[in-house]
């Protein structure tokens, strides 16, 4: 039942609950357990606060306040949960499918968009309108290690911003080291120079040199697609949370926090509990994360 309501297992729910501050609650205020459940239900199903108020026997404004307060708590307590691991740790946890063609792969990147309501100002309307999607969005760059661990999440950018601009302005390129290999789709040709300046390599599916792909181009496309599916799976797990499908404009300043928390929930946060118990074994931590 808990998983259906919130997509969280009991162990994950317990981990998130342990992050709440140990303070006495006021009379008639929801318990920490119910506040967390309210928060996760809102993330998963994006039901109106009026419905959450009825479900938890509180006023809708109280439900909204508790959702935002929980969002702020979890964001503050999990701020370092998306981190850039050392190259040795990435290679130690690399699946065999990567070792064949991309043994030096450090990260797979892609952009994802969250639909938002029409912003109030004309300036923001121009910035947030996505020509590709045909509606207003906030756009993020996500980086995933070969093991499946989310290792990079940019700030939010307007839907009009190109993938190249986000990659450059987010500071992602500063993470790269010589000989790193970055896998991306066809939306990132503009970062070839920036990646090269770090003495790293960008690998993208080939563009057809003629009317159709050559045999070599077909093989290269298949090899890239077979490993890029890792980042696509992570994004898909994030998007099971209905709140990402349409964000109210007054929640946009908090959308970054929401997306971060969805990333944590989406790829099994309880592995981070093991990190806290064994901070000296980064490779083991990455391996544990990759199991979920």
TrEMBL record:
Domain DDE Tnp4: 109-258
Keywords noted in UniProt: Metal-binding, Signal
Superkingdom classification of source: Eukaryota
Pfam family of the protein (one): DDE_Tnp_4
Presence of keyword Cell membrane: no
Stretches assigned to coiled coil: none
All residue ranges annotated as the Transposase Helix-turn-helix domain in the record: 29-78
Signal peptide per UniProt: 1-26
This protein's name: Uncharacterized protein
Organism: Ixodes ricinus (Common tick)
